[in-house]
Design brief:
Layout (H helix, E strand, L loop, with lengths): L14 H48 L34 H11 L10 H8 L1 E2 L12 H11 L4 H5 L4 E9 L5 E8 L5 H10 L8 E2 L2 E2 L1 E10 L3
Parallel strand pairs: 1-6
Antiparallel strand pairs: 2-3, 2-6, 4-5
Length: 229
């Protein structure tokens, strides 16, 4: 036995209507969804713009106003006064040319240079070891050894002890030929050194040594021979 449907409960006839209603709802939802997204974007842009506007306002507020530079100080005016003097009038500031003439006369005084004698004094004090012209005993070398042989007194102590040999004596022949600074360089003992110094000091004046034609002080070394006969 077939079941019969109630015509009111039969939905097959209303299928097209329900389909249209569903499409309309879906389109409405889609439209709402699109509108909602665009609204969000606009809201975000508005928020960003307000934030930028606030930042710009803050930056403008923090800027300091530049003050104009102070005006330069007023400099006092320098006033120069010129006193015009007539040709006939005598000026108090006239320069006395006679004073200049006296000064020129004073500056023309000849100044004689003072001779410095330091170099000459040094030459006088210097003792030469080698010179162009050696000092010489009066009569030459032979006369000198003859003088020594005739005037030496053999010391008794040296004679008793049979002391013989040469005593070396050094001395300075001054510019006037005199003998100074006599001393023994080498002694053989027995009083021979003292006798050699005595005989040299008793020498007559020598012919002084010369350097560049000028008499100078010369150091001279002399051997004095002591021998028993």
């Amino acid at each position: 036995m077939e079941a019969k449907k109630n015509p009111k409960a039969d939905l097959e006839n209303r299928r097209g209507l329900y389909l249209e209603i569903g499409l309309v709802v879906i389109m409405a939802i889609a439209l709402v969804a699109f509108e909602w997204k665009s609204y969000d974007e606009e809201q975000i842009e508005v928020v960003q713009r307000t934030a930028m506007d606030e930042v710009e306002d803050v930056i403008i507020q923090t800027q300091q106003e530049e003050l104009p530079p102070p005006p330069p100080p007023e400099q006092p005016e320098v006033v120069t006064e010129l006193n015009v003097i007539e040709d006939d009038a005598e000026s108090q500031n006239e320069v006395d040319m006679s004073s200049f003439a006296r000064q020129e006369e004073a500056t023309n005084i000849e100044i004689t240079p003072v001779k410095i004698e330091e170099e000459e004094e040094e030459d006088e004090q210097e003792i030469f070891q080698v010179v162009e012209n050696d000092p010489e005993f009066p009569g030459g070398v032979d006369a000198m050894y003859k003088y020594l042989a005739q005037n030496i007194k053999y010391p008794q102590l040296a004679r008793e002890n049979n002391i013989t040999g040469r005593v070396y004596v050094t001395f300075v022949v001054e510019k006037d030929g005199s003998v100074t600074n006599v001393r023994v360089l080498r002694d053989i003992g027995g009083g021979c050194g003292q006798e050699a110094v005595r005989i040299v000091k008793a020498m007559p004046k020598w012919t002084p040594g010369k350097q560049r034609g000028k008499a100078v002080r010369v150091q001279y070394n002399l051997p004095v021979n002591f021998s028993l006969r």
